[in-house]
């Protein structure tokens, strides 16, 4: 009897061990899903300069988990004004010659691991300004030269298309005719791109004043596959008051996500082309005086015109979510946190420092809003300031499924919210261009799960 029990015990142990291995395979399979499990667009901008950030802020392609995204956008290329052509801004980071980092190739090769992933390159950005783009768009000859160079560039480096990030037409050195000429530039590019199966998108400012001055929304929509709405930076230290970076609900000053989306729809933007931008960062403030009450919210408090920096991004008035949550997760660090219901924004305050930012809760609210409005999906600026190392797992554990991972809490929250939304294919108005059907559940994983259940049954009968 003793030998028989020993045999049973040993056998049960081996069976349990085998079940554990299979369960581990299931977890790894879930974590390695190659694209989001829904039919919405999730556009992830990637800051190419993130490789230069110090310490745990350094973000390279080894840290980029593209399964959180349907589209990746490499930021940024620039404009060679003298030749009217697109150019690499940082050849050492972008190209391969001379032992350089080869960023273009490394990002486009991610499609090999993630079927259906689209990888495009953005031209422009804040630092490029507006004047050179204004002059380019004003000349039919220069526009055609640029179109030819853009086609050659995206083909040479194996991108799926181009994202226009002109910040902003008619502003920052631009001219009144930019509004019309931006349409003509988009039209010329679209003619060349669509015949070659290339994507053309644009990132648009979200303030109503900027929209009205810079964009002929209805006509632009004819030529763009997607419109990325930069629904953030509504407020910052420049207001000299603590306010939300990206408030969700309608606001008295009309600076909110809902105000922007409703205005774009009113101007003729198709829902199926609108992609709602979400910030993976917050805005920082230095208060002019300490809050009077121990439980007071900093929202609305007067502040200096310059905010403080984070240790990785090192930009006044700006902190990535990874920087913010790293501060909050430290024990006895003195930060007090709260939630502003009116704007749907998280906040933190310590002494004379305050931060307003998006967290997993606000990201899910905005993703829900995009789904409810039947938009094409969402985009993030930028994936490299999410908590990609999972250092803040302690404060996000209740919101995330540990089987799927505790890193990238913002991206996981976004995709969770979108995965529970009704399929957009239920409405013809929301079919998106170049859409890829969401994958069906992995039959191998289902078979593995069935095996685990069978093994557990066997163990029960032996014991």
From TrEMBL:
GO terms for biological process: carbohydrate metabolic process; chitin catabolic process. Keywords: Glycosidase, Hydrolase, Signal. One of its GO terms (molecular function) is chitinase activity. This is Probable chitinase 2. It comes from the Eukaryota. Residues 1-29 form the signal peptide. GO terms for cellular component: extracellular region. Belongs to the glycosyl hydrolase 18 family. Residues 40-421 form the GH18 domain. It comes from Neodiprion lecontei. Gene3D superfamilies: 3.10.50.10, Glycosidases. InterPro entries: Chitinase_II/V-like_cat, Chitinase_insertion_sf, GH, Glyco_hydro18_cat, Glyco_hydro_18_chit_AS, Glycosyl_Hydrlase_18.
């Amino acid at each position: 009897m003793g030998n028989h029990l020993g045999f049973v015990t040993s056998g049960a142990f081996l069976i349990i061990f085998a079940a554990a291995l299979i369960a581990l395979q299931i977890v790894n399979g879930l974590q390695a899903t190659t694209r989001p499990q829904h039919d919405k667009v999730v556009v992830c901008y990637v800051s190419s300069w993130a490789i230069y950030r110090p310490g745990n802020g350094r973000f390279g392609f080894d840290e980029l988990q593209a399964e959180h995204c349907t589209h990746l956008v490499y930021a940024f290329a620039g404009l060679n004004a003298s030749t009217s052509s697109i150019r690499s801004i940082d050849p050492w980071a972008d190209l391969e010659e001379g032992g350089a980092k080869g960023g273009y190739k490394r990002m486009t090769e991610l499609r090999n691991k993630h079927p259906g992933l689209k990888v495009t390159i953005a031209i422009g950005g804040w630092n490029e300004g507006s004047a050179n783009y204004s002059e380019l768009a004003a000349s039919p000859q220069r526009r055609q030269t640029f179109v030819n160079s853009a086609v050659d560039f995206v083909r040479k480096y194996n991108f799926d298309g181009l994202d226009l990030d002109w910040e902003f037409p008619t502003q920052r050195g631009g001219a009144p005719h930019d509004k019309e000429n931006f349409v003509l530039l988009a039209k010329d590019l679209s003619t060349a791109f669509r015949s070659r199966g290339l994507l053309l998108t644009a990132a648009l400012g979200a303030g109503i004043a900027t929209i009205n001055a810079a964009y002929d929304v209805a006509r632009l929509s004819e030529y763009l596959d997607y419109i990325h709405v930069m629904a953030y930076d509504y407020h910052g230290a420049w207001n000299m008051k603590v306010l939300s970076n990206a408030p969700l609900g309608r606001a008295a000053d009309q600076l909110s996500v809902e105000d922007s989306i409703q205005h774009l729809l009113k101007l003729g933007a198709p829902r199926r082309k609108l992609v709602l931008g979400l910030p993976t960062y917050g805005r920082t403030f230095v208060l002019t005086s300490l809050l009077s009450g121990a439980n007071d919210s900093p929202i609305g408090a007067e502040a200096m015109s310059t905010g403080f920096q984070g240790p990785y991004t090192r930009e006044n008035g700006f902190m990535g979510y990874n920087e913010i949550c790293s501060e909050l997760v430290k024990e006895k660090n003195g930060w007090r946190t709260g939630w502003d219901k009116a704007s749907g924004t998280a906040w933190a305050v310590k002494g004379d420092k305050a931060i307003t930012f998006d967290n997993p809760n606000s990201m899910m609210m905005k993703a829900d809003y995009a789904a409810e409005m039947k938009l094409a999906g969402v985009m993030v600026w930028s994936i490299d300031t999410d908590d990609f190392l999972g250092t803040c797992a302690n404060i996000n554990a209740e919101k995330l499924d540990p089987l799927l991972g505790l890193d990238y809490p913002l991206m996981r929250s976004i995709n969770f919210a979108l995965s529970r939304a009704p399929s957009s294919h239920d409405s013809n108005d929301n079919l998106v261009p170049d859409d890829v059907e969401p994958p069906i559940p992995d039959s191998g994983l289902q078979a593995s799960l069935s095996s685990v259940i069978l093994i557990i049954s066997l163990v029960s009968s032996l014991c």
